[in-house]
Specification:
Distance between the termini of chain A: 7 Å
Radius of gyration of chain B: 16 Å
Low-confidence stretches of chain A: none
Mean pLDDT of chain A: 94
Strand order of the largest sheet of chain B: 4-1-5-6-13-12-11-8-9
Low-confidence stretches of chain B: none
CATH class of chain B: Alpha Beta
Helix content of chain B: 25-40%
Helix content of chain A: 10-25%
Largest sheet of chain B: 9 strands, mixed
Number of domains of chain B: 1
Oligomer: heterodimer
Shape of chain B: globular
Number of helices of chain B: 6
Structural class of chain A: alpha/beta
CATH topology of chain B: Rossmann fold
Largest sheet of chain A: 9 strands, mixed
Amino acid sequence: MVSKDERPIIGVTCGIREASFAKWKMDAAVLPSTYSTAIERAGGIPLLIPPSKYSNSILKIINGIVIAGGPDVDSSAYGQESDSLAGEYFPEQDSSEMALLKGALEIDVPILCICRGMQLLSIIHGGSLYQHLDTTPGYENHGGYDGRVTEHQVIINENSRIGNIMGTEVRVNSTHHQGVSNAGSLTVSAHSAHDGLIEAVERSDLKFCIGVQWHPERMGEGHDILYHELVKSARS
Amino acid sequence: MKPLIGITTSVNVLDYETQDQETIMIPTNYPKAIRESGGISILLTEGDDADEILNHLDGLVIAGGRDIDPNLYGEAFHNRTNDVRPKQDIWEIALIKGAIKRDLPLLCICRGHQLLCAIHGGKLHQHLPETKGFEDHGATGGEWSSHIINLEINSQIGSILGNQIIGNSGHHQGVYEPGNLTVVGRTEDGLIEAVELESQTFLISTQWHPEMINQRTIFDALIEAGRS
């Protein structure tokens, strides 16, 4: 709990990759700085959470959490064989983030799940994924992936939390090759206008728990409202 | 309860997720060393939050990284000083000062060591391969070498590592004037490789990278200090 004039601490999950900068090359914890700058603009203090068996210990000092975008989730987490077009898996990151999510849900820490984060949220609620949209009938033209970013309209349910925040229709970016096919026990709160893919999910029984398939932190200050609402909720 | 140790990160431009993405990064050697010594790592990222976040930490590591702004020690830019990021300097200086004010256990590595010295009145050679007497200090530009470092046995680091170690070396700048810090380690060419500050219960500051050479006792000591 933080007072009105204190800034809440928002943890953001990050991945581990071999990274090179100048001439060095080594495994590094990495996160696009768009997340931390969006959290700062919204009035929070960003902290990065690297994959770890003990990531849950961080729950005692954070007031809110962002599960960031990243690699594909191991399909065994939702009981499927791996599709040949699935990307590389990072099991330590999967298990760390799933444990963190479950721990955060249990104590009702405000949560915003982005892209991979929304997919993980769906999986731990019994949902499952399409492993490659380009070869999934009906979703072949969903949008960009592999670094390519496209845009499309999303239709949001009026009576949802995210609908209250963003209204019933919004233009978003799209840069993912997997998608949620079944959100399990979560409430589906938005679909893409052109093919109906699930674009946002939420749990109304918690203080703040929203997942979106797009990347609001990459869309400039006009799209900061989800981060603002997360920080607001983390403060209360 | 495992101590929470903050580690500073750097923002670099990388091809990650999208091209030329500003990316927050830190080699995993740092969180790995903290974890293996029994702490929990939290990665801090550049911002104006220094003072607030320190209230939640049990220890702090100022990590290696880019060159610091020579203005911090009152010198003009050498033509080999590059990639400075004043925003990161200002943020990390606030963290160092806040940690010292709180007597929070503090470990400064490489860039962190240089920054600690600069704000205590120390001075840096900006490019050792072109500085008389230090031409052969060690490898630079992403290469690594190793050399003997003599430590003061009556110092904090001496009590942990003994009076002589083989340290790794992969830096092109180095501290030659310690300001009001106490020098507790030097290489044979005289470069200042370790300093301490008497008023601080736990402060270790090294030019070398203990996290890369599995010098676990340094991290054990930091975590132990973080427990109390």
